[in-house]
Structures are given as structure tokens and as C-alpha cells.
Amino acid sequence: MPDLPLDPPEPPSRFGDPQSPQITRGQRLRDLAVGGGLALAFAAVAIALLPTRKDDDLVRGDDLGRLQVRLTRDGETRPLASSDRLRTGDAVSFTFQGSEEGYLTVLGVDVDGRVRVLHPTGELSAPWSPAAPTESEPAQLGAEPPPVLFAGVSCPEPVPVATVQRALEATASTPERFALLTCQIDLVRVGGATL
Q1: Is 33 domain-assigned?
Q2: Residue 13 lies in a domain
Q3: Separation in Å, CA 146 to CA 26, 68, 79, 91, 143
Q4: What domain range includes position 79?
Q5: CATH label of the domain that carries residue 148
């Protein structure tokens, strides 16, 4: 058996070997420009594919469901208009309708960015069906700041309500960025307020 050297051979050095190809500064800049251009093109396509609506509601998702908020004031109940300003003594309720079964969480965000869970009362999002839209009982607004944004979050599987709440709290000042994988989100603004 032949004797093996104790020290492994040294690999050729790219930087010191005159025969190895060198990457020039121009090539690096070109590669960065191509990569950045591809990233911008991908972002533009992703934004173009987001659904949009022309009405006052902000909606994200694939339109599997729609959150409708109703206002009860002075004994009269009607759909909440984007120009309405909620006040103490008002009552709000919601209906959520959609084309596929899912699990629903409804949240409200006040002007200070605080997020409150309005539905359900349990720890997991509540099941709903297109055959029977989810309807809430009117909830009387108290002394705390009223919601300026309602979010209906419909997911194909049950989701912990605390997870949905934390996700909205993290983006309460920019609710358009609120997202949960596989969930459809309907946002309804109130009174033209900004967070």
C-alpha cells in the first residue's frame, strides 16, 4: 500500500491563480441590476394581481366572503356608511356572507390602534356557511373609543383568535398590509378616519 501524504493538497486559490477567471466590477453591477430588475418585475406582477374595488370598503382576498356592518342609531338600523361617525349609544352589528364554508373572526380597531375581538367569544375562529350567513347581535358602544375599522377574517381552517388579533395589531396603523396566509380579509373603514 502506498504512503499517503499527511497534509491534504492545497486547493488552487482563485484570487492568486492567474488562470482562474476574475469577476469584474462591471459584471457585479450588471448582475445586481438584473437581479433588482427581476425583483421589481415580480413585485409589479404581484400588485397587479391583487383584486380591487371601487367602493368605500377595502377588500383583500379572493372575494370568498364579504363583511357588512350595520348601524343602529335612535331605533333605526341601516348599513354603515363610510361617512358615518360612531358615537356612544350607537350599536353595531355585522353580517358575513360568502361562497365557501370557512372560519370567521371579526375585529374592530379604534382610533388609538387598539384591536378588539368582536366575534367569536371563544378561542378559535367560528365556523360559518354560505347557506346561513353569520349575523351578530347588535353591540352597544360604550365610553371606549369606537371602532374606525372593522376586519372580517375568513380562513379555510380554524385559527386561534389571538393569532388573528396579534396580526392585526402588528399592522393597525397600515391595515392594508394585514395578511394571514390562506385567509380572506375584508376591511371596512368608518368615518373616513385614519389610524
Answers
A1: no
A2: no
A3: 58, 17, 17, 10, 8
A4: 58-189
A5: 2.60.40
pLDDT in tens, 42-59: 443 333 333 333 333 333
* Contact by Cβ (8 Å): 123, 179: no
Q: Choose among 134, 154, 147, 156: nearest CA to 188.
A: 147
pTM of the model: 0.62
**The C-alpha cell of 157 is what?**
381552517
Residue bearing cell 381552517: 157
Return all residues near 146 (Cβ < 8 A) that are at least 6 apart: 86, 87, 88, 90, 110, 190
Identify whether 29 is part of a domain: no
Query: Is the Cβ–Cβ distance between 61 and 52 less than 8 Å?
Result: no
CA dist., res. 181 & res. 195, Å (int): 24
How far apart are the C-alpha atoms of 152 and 106, rounded to whole Å? 5
How many structural domains comprise the chain? 1
